[in-house]
Amino acid sequence: MANKIMSINAGSSSLKFQLFGMPEEELLVKGLFERIGLEEEMGFSYSMKDEKVKTTIKGKTHEDAINFLLHFLLDRKILMSLQELAGVGHRVAHGGEDFKKSSLVNLEALKKIKDLGKLAPLHNPVNVVGIEALQKELPDCPQVAVFDTSYHQTMEAKNYVYPLPYRFYEEDSVRRYGFHGTSHQFVASEAASFLGKPLESLKIVSCHLGNGASICGIKDGKSVITSMGFTPLAGLMMGTRCGDIDPSIIPFLQKEKNLSADDMDKLMNGESGFKGITEFSSDTRDIISEAENGNERAQLALDMFTGRVKQTIGAYAAELDGLDVLIFTAGIGENSAIIRERICENMTFFGIQLDESQNQQGSMRISTEASKVEVLVVETNEELMIVRDTYNLI
Ligand code: ADP
């Protein structure tokens, strides 16, 4: 019986996959192809049950990776036949205003995803490569696109139109889209289940703090406001991205330092944030340990980051007219007790009171009994969300 669903997340030189048995949501195998296209070989690692393997395989393209993967699933008897695969869900970076929810990939949808490459030139084209590679191997298997942006399509115009001449929105689609939607949606729904309350009854601020970081204000189960914008560069300071800065700095530096638009783009995306301030790392683990050793730049970077997150929580609570649940997720949010503590300190007036020992232990609920706001650490799982959406659509 066709009851297995696979998620595919194709990057420029990587392809991640997870295969689930549905509707039990049983993870059967997950893995990653890396260094695709760089040499004649690529890296392949996977884990299932107690088995963890890292190896290399021959091949240069995403198609080679997909081809290998399907044979691997059959050879290892994870699938008895490819007919067991009921559908494949693809992570797609940008759905623009066309995709307000996940969508079955037909010819029309594929064309729209390709056209949206204009808004996400680094991501959508490579997502399309993943979709087309699978279509070629499995022409009869339904494929679904799950967009990073679609969850935020519920924002009102006042929260997505930029105060630039309105024609740039109309003619060039310049507006706030927001990203990490799959993650924010997933953790909000997990939080509601954990609390045993309907999602629609909760005012939630979700902090996805990873190498890329964004915050989302959620009311009635819908995204009301989010910190990333036209691109994932906006909002919080991140590993190597600057987040919001005075826009005048851009033409100023271009003139002063004789930088092109592309130079500036690279500088703001790849050389800023934690990396730009500390000048030694974009990884918060290194920065926390250097800050403890007295490195002032590391301390400044942490103060800047935690301060910006705190300010955004306050602003979003104002937008939501209250706050019931504060969620921390992703690499930093799930693992760093010290960063969660720094963000939540001096927020008692606001109804946020952390339980120090629960926070240290990384429990799911890290607020005290007396805290008006429930503070939760929720592990994100974008792949499971992709698979759930795919299952529901097909
Ligand atoms: P991505 O945006 O690449 O998916 P992740 O969600 O995997 O990022 O998060 C990566 C970030 O999480 C890195 O900056 C890493 O340093 C941070 N991180 C992981 N574990 C810890 C930890 N124990 N303490 C602090 N930061 C951590």
- The CATH topology of the largest domain is given as Nucleotidyltransferase, domain 5
Strand order of the largest sheet: 5-4-3-2-1-6-8-7
Q: What Rg is obtained from the alpha carbons, in whole angstroms?
A: 22 Å
Main sheet makeup: 8 strands, mixed
Tell me which oligomeric state these chains represent.
single chain
Shape: globular
The total tally of domains equals: 2
Number of helices: 15
Helix and strand sequence? EEEEEHEEHHEHHHEEEHHHHHEHHHEH
Ends apart, CA distance between termini? 14 Å
The structure class reads: alpha/beta
What is the overall pLDDT average?
96
Q: What name goes with the CATH superfamily of the largest domain?
A: ATPase, nucleotide binding domain
Number of strands: 13
**Known CATH architecture of the largest domain:** 2-Layer Sandwich
Residues in helices, as a percent range: 25-40%
Strand content: 15-25%
Outline the low-pLDDT stretches. none
The CATH class assignment of the largest domain is Alpha Beta
